[in-house]
Amino acid sequence: MSDQTVKPSRHHLWRITLRTLGKSWDDSIFAESAQAGFWSALSTPPLLLGMLGSLAYVAPLFGPDALHSIEKSAISAAHSLFSSSVVNEIIEPTVRDITAHARGEVVSLGFLLSLWAGSSAISAFVDSVVEAHDQTPLRHPVRQRLFALFLYVVGLVCAVVAAPVLVVGPRTVSEHIPYALANVLRYGYYPALVLGLMTGVVILYRVSLPEPLPTHRLVLGAILATAVFVIATLGLRVYLRWITSTGYTYGALSTPIAFLLFAFFGGFAIMLGAELNAAIQEEFPAPRTHAHRLRKWLISRSPTLKRTAEALSNPVTTNPATRERDVEPAGPPT
């Protein structure tokens, strides 16, 4: 009976909640969120330059007005997340200026520098997720920075490929379906946006960790992160609208401060979700992923691979937070 799965109870839920809050405080969640928010704000122009600059070459393949449609969709999505002042004074002018000079910037040295600068936000998020799971010693800081750059480039390529399809596709489909179904496409925009955010957070949690958890064990943290971010942004928009109506503003600094607050809540939500996943892992340790089991099985079958792994000092055996998952004998992956 000892191998039966322990079912969660109110006692476990209370312990997980306390552990999540305790780990968040111990890991300086406010300082990490502020750092992630700062780098997110600082990386916004390079991020837009990388995406829109590349789209200037890809979008015309989908029609002469595809780039303009993508620009409008990006600004519309920004209105869904940020306040009007942030969009009108920061995001929209930046998007329009980059779009007007996108082709020339891509072939310049500034574009290569923007790749490094734009990946700073990804690096901050990766650092916070890794720290939440106590896996910081498992990856060298330089290697982790280059890994964040790799994630940024991969995400940039995916965005460049997917953006024209996501913008042109629904418009083309809506022209050939009944009006009632067209309403479904329009009303499904916000649920699809939330689902897309949640999926992106799950992917971030999965690829950030040197010792990743099974994907299904990351969903609860992604749900919490998405919910916290959506609620925080809605509350911040209401607060900014109210403070503006009273006449008490920060003058010319009000818009940058508002943008930094949005970025701060984004970092706060991602780190809080990662802390929840780490607390659940401590309470209910998950088995190793199939990729890790396959790797261990291959090493056990090959003396050469085993010596190589020992020479490289495999960090799996040095992490106390996950060492208990390695007590099982190596066998063929199932």
Q: Report the span from N to C terminus.
A: 22 Å
Sheet/helix structural class = mainly alpha
**How many helices does DSSP assign?**
13
Percentage beta strand: under 5%
Mean pLDDT: 76
Helix content: over 70%
Count the beta strands.
Answer: 0
Large-scale geometry: globular
Radius of gyration, whole Å: 23 Å
The figure for the number of domains is 2
Helix-strand string: HHHHHHHHHHHHH
Low-confidence stretches: 312-318, 326-334
Membrane topology: Multi-pass membrane protein
Keywords: Cell membrane, Membrane, Transmembrane, Transmembrane helix
Main location: membrane
InterPro entries: Virul_fac_BrkB
General description of the model:
The chain crosses the membrane at residues 146-168, 189-207, 219-240, 252-274. Residues 309-334 are annotated as: Disordered. One of its GO terms (cellular component) is plasma membrane. By secondary structure, the chain is an all-alpha fold. It folds into two domains: 10-286, no CATH class; 290-334, no CATH class. It has 13 helices and no strands. Helix 3 packs antiparallel against helix 4 (84-100) and helix 6 packs across helix 11. The chain is globular, with a radius of gyration of 23 Å. The protein starts with 9 loop residues before the first helix and ends in a 23-residue tail after the last helix. The model is unreliable at 312-318 and 326-334 (pLDDT under 50).
List key phrases describing it:
single chain; 334 residues; mainly alpha; 2 domains; 13 helices; 75% helix; disordered C terminus; transmembrane helix
